[in-house]
């Protein structure tokens, strides 16, 4: 009895509030850092290179990005009044603004103009976060499932690029050795996930990355010679690139980036809430977005850019099953330390990119799988939900399949729709409003594409086998065809069927129908 009471007391009310031992907490937290490290250092590398900065100055940008990413992560996960969703979300420099920042740099404004635009645009974003918190009612499973699935699918090119080597200009880009190392890391993740030990399975990504790095080192594919170069400790200096400058055109273009960031962060908050199995309401979304924007306002002071939730770490939560937000908080602490100790950052940076690519295939795929699981909850019978899913995912895949698709459009349009996540999210929201909120004009027997998708021929015995899946039972039993057809086109091997002699069961809408047992109805 004592053990039962102790277990009850130690069980948190919310899954994300679970506390693990310190060693496990920081081990899982470090796994989060390794997962997003390549993504968080890429924007400062790209923007710094476009601005013509020296390697030392680019290093300062990277250190600032790690430092601010860590602080933003801690704020988002631990949370204070009005700030932080208290969900396991890792924060870092958003990819959404890279092209815009490069354009600002190319326009002659340099890094100070970028930092000024980020500061002002983020402040405006902070003021409008309550509006974004109100859109939660427009995110039913048909929308969230589309967004989560698209997040995973849009990240796959990143994993593929990493697996090929990360640098398209390198002579070994796409070589058999690079892709082979990525596949080996991928195989280690899968094998470790099969191991009986839960701890090993949950740490499979981290262990695989370490193992892949050691193998690469033995094969001469990893280079740690540069780890000792540069300072061991460095604190990000405020306004190290000079005072921010404020250009109207730069601020307007960055405002569009902020809108995209708010949309993607909203989607990530809902996605991780779905994966964790916790309640996400308007207040929680507003708190998460305020933490996002507050961090983005402070970032330019230390030489960093807009902060956003990292979708790949949502995938890590899904694949490991570790839902504790304190694990991600520990990852935030590690990021802060990496920002203060560039030598540790150089160690992590030495992890071969193909190793990260092999792990990324599993991580990003798990995000898409989580979205598919959410879409399984959608009722497709007598609705246009299938059309919403089909059109939205296809629309989101356009900029992924053809990155130059919107190159001839205005910059503001391209900034929004070059993101597959934003494209899919906006389309899903608009179509959901059109078909599910605006009832006028929607036919009772909607679409030829939908009619064939309803579960119209499922045995009662099959339903019994699916008794544990409330979603499937619910959607099938609501199917009008299933309710009206007493024969159910049963498989003789499935067991007893209703007696045809009992006569037809009435259709509330159309009245009695003849028995269709021999009508040739297919399953």
From TrEMBL:
<feature type="transmembrane region" description="Helical">
    <location>
        <begin position="175"/>
        <end position="192"/>
    </location>
</feature>
<protein>
    <submittedName>
        <fullName>Nucleobase:cation symporter-2 family protein</fullName>
    </submittedName>
</protein>
<dbReference type="InterPro" id="IPR017588">
    <property type="entry name" value="UacT-like"/>
</dbReference>
<feature type="transmembrane region" description="Helical">
    <location>
        <begin position="413"/>
        <end position="435"/>
    </location>
</feature>
<feature type="transmembrane region" description="Helical">
    <location>
        <begin position="58"/>
        <end position="75"/>
    </location>
</feature>
<keyword id="KW-1133">Transmembrane helix</keyword>
<feature type="transmembrane region" description="Helical">
    <location>
        <begin position="241"/>
        <end position="262"/>
    </location>
</feature>
<feature type="compositionally biased region" description="Low complexity">
    <location>
        <begin position="481"/>
        <end position="494"/>
    </location>
</feature>
<feature type="transmembrane region" description="Helical">
    <location>
        <begin position="326"/>
        <end position="349"/>
    </location>
</feature>
<comment type="similarity">
    <text>Belongs to the nucleobase:cation symporter-2 (NCS2) (TC 2.A.40) family.</text>
</comment>
<feature type="compositionally biased region" description="Pro residues">
    <location>
        <begin position="495"/>
        <end position="511"/>
    </location>
</feature>
<feature type="transmembrane region" description="Helical">
    <location>
        <begin position="384"/>
        <end position="401"/>
    </location>
</feature>
<feature type="region of interest" description="Disordered">
    <location>
        <begin position="474"/>
        <end position="523"/>
    </location>
</feature>
<feature type="transmembrane region" description="Helical">
    <location>
        <begin position="111"/>
        <end position="133"/>
    </location>
</feature>
<dbReference type="InterPro" id="IPR006043">
    <property type="entry name" value="NCS2"/>
</dbReference>
<dbReference type="InterPro" id="IPR006042">
    <property type="entry name" value="Xan_ur_permease"/>
</dbReference>
<feature type="transmembrane region" description="Helical">
    <location>
        <begin position="355"/>
        <end position="372"/>
    </location>
</feature>
<feature type="transmembrane region" description="Helical">
    <location>
        <begin position="142"/>
        <end position="163"/>
    </location>
</feature>
<feature type="transmembrane region" description="Helical">
    <location>
        <begin position="87"/>
        <end position="105"/>
    </location>
</feature>
<keyword id="KW-0472">Membrane</keyword>
<keyword id="KW-1003">Cell membrane</keyword>
<dbReference type="Pfam" id="PF00860">
    <property type="entry name" value="Xan_ur_permease"/>
</dbReference>
<feature type="transmembrane region" description="Helical">
    <location>
        <begin position="199"/>
        <end position="221"/>
    </location>
</feature>
<keyword id="KW-0813">Transport</keyword>
<keyword id="KW-0812">Transmembrane</keyword>
<feature type="transmembrane region" description="Helical">
    <location>
        <begin position="20"/>
        <end position="46"/>
    </location>
</feature>
């Amino acid at each position: 009895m004592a053990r039962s009471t102790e277990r009850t007391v130690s069980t948190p009310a919310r899954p994300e509030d679970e506390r693990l031992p310190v060693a496990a907490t920081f081990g899982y937290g470090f796994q989060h850092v390794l997962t997003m490290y390549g993504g968080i250092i890429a924007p400062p590398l790209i923007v710094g290179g476009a601005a013509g900065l020296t390697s030392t100055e680019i290093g300062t940008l990277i250190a600032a990005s790690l430092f601010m990413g860590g602080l933003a992560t801690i704020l988002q996960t631990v949370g204070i009044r009005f700030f932080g969703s208290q969900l396991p979300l890792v924060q870092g420099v958003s990819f959404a603004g890279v092209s815009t920042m490069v354009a600002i740099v190319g326009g002659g404004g340099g890094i100070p103009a970028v930092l000024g635009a980020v500061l002002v645009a983020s402040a405006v974003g902070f003021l409008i976060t309550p509006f974004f918190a109100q859109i939660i009612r427009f995110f039913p499973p048909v929308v969230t499932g589309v967004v989560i699935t698209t997040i995973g699918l849009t990240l796959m090119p990143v994993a593929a690029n990493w697996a090929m080597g990360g640098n398209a200009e390198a002579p070994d880009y796409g070589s058999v050795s690079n892709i082979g190392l990525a596949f080996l890391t991928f195989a280690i993740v899968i094998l470790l996930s099969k191991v009986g030990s839960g701890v090993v399975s949950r740490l499979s990504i981290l262990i695989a990355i370490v193992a892949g790095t050691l193998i690469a080192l033995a094969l001469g594919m990893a280079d740690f010679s540069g780890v000792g170069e540069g300072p061991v400790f460095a604190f990000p200096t405020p306004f190290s690139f000079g005072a921010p400058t404020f250009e109207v055109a730069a601020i307007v273009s960055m405002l569009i980036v902020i809108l995209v960031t708010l949309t993607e962060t909203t989607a990530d908050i809902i996605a991780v809430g779905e994966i964790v199995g916790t309640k996400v309401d308007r207040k929680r979304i507003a708190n998460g977005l305020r933490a996002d924007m507050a961090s983005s306002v402070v970032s330019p002071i230390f030489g960093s850019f807009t902060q956003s939730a990292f979708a790949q770490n949502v995938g890590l939560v899904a694949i490991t099953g570790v839902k504790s937000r304190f694990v991600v908080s520990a990852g935030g602490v590690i990021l802060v330390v990496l920002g203060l100790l560039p030598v540790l950052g150089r160690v992590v940076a030495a992890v071969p990119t193909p190793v990260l690519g092999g792990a990324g295939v599993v991580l990003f795929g798990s995000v898409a799988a989580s979205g598919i699981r959410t879409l399984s909850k959608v009722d497709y019978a007598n609705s246009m939900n299938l059309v919403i899913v089909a059109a939205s995912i296809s629309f989101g895949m356009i900029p992924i399949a053809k990155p130059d698709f919107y190159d001839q459009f205005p910059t503001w349009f391209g900034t929004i729709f070059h993101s597959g996540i934003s494209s899919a999210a906006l389309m899903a929201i608009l179509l959901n409003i059109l078909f599910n909120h605006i009832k006028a004009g929607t036919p009772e027997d909607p679409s030829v594409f939908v009619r064939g998708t309803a579960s119209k021929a499922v045995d009662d015995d099959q339903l019994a086998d699916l008794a544990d899946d409330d979603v499937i039972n619910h959607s099938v039993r609501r199917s009008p065809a299933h309710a009206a057809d007493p024969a159910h086109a049963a498989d003789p091997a499935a067991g007893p069927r209703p007696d045809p002699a009992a006569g037809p069961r009435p259709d509330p809408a159309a009245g009695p129908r003849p028995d269709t047992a021999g009508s040739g109805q297919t399953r």
